[in-house]
Amino acid sequence: MAEHTSSSITIEAAPADVMGVIADFARYPEWTGEVKEAEVLSTDDHGRAEKVRLVLDAGAIKDDHTLAYTWIGDYEVSWTLVKSQMLRAIDGSYALAPLGDGDRTEVTYRLTVDVKIPMLGMIKRKAEKVIIDRALAGLKKRVESIPKV
């Protein structure tokens, strides 16, 4: 597998609020930009998604694929490819770190994509960077727009 691409952003919300948005797959098309459809296919004993079907349109990368999710405590989730039309592999994660008094969160998104068609590594990294940057910006906007109770 090729090297990964990662980026971080600070969100003005508690980690639980951020993870709540990350775990709400049905709403991904509202804030991610690249995800056009999302369907939870199975859940774990805690009600968290284990397998999710996503229809993705990220410019150079368009696909209908299924991902398997692993939830690590309350602050991290990772995923790997189950099946895909275009992708050979996709590995990613969101890692959350509370900041200050826990009312801010640093979110790090890490992603590695390997496509079935020949594509220059530079173009793949650029596509990964676009996916990550748009997802983090969309996540920040979505989380910070939710009224605090």
How would you sum up this structure, described in words?
There is one protein chain. The protein has a 7-stranded antiparallel sheet. 25% of the residues lie in helices and 48% in strands. With 149 residues, the chain is an alpha+beta fold. The protein has 3 helices and 7 strands; from the N terminus they run βααββββββα. The longest helix has 25 residues, at 121-145. It has helices at 15-22, 28-31, 121-145; strands spanning 5-11, 35-43, 49-58, 61-72, 76-84, 87-99, 104-115. α1 (15-22) packs across α3 (121-145). It is globular.
The share of residues in extended strands comes to: over 45%
Instruction: Return Rg in Å.
Output: 15 Å
Report the uncertain regions.
none
First-residue to last-residue Cα separation: 43 Å
Sequence of secondary-structure elements = EHHEEEEEEH
Shape: globular
Structural class of the secondary elements? Answer: alpha+beta
What can be said about the biggest beta sheet? 7 strands, antiparallel
Approximate helicity band: 10-25%
The count of helical stretches stands at 3
